[in-house]
Write a structure and sequence with these properties.
It is a single chain. By secondary structure, the protein is an alpha+beta fold. The protein has a two-stranded parallel sheet. Strand 1, helix 3 and strand 2 form a beta-alpha-beta unit.
Amino acid sequence: MTGSTNLPPRAAGMVLDSTVTPGWIARGDALASVTAPTLVVNAAHSRLASQADARAFVRRLPDARLVDVATGGHVLVGNVAHLRRVLAEFFDQRP
């Protein structure tokens, strides 16, 4: 890997992600109290957050949008330009 795609190891963070996220999905009552508009981004082939889990998570948030990207894994490598556009549109739509 080169420059911008060289990622430092983040094993501890990935373990936390894979441990905490399923609990958030299971506790839908806590998610229902989130009132902020929420943008969830997930890579189709992420090994830590499946598309089904991402969809379930978004369904439990009152004002959420899911953006699936085809590549990049859990850390969304190679999607910077696309996600910047998505974020700009998301923030532009908010009062």
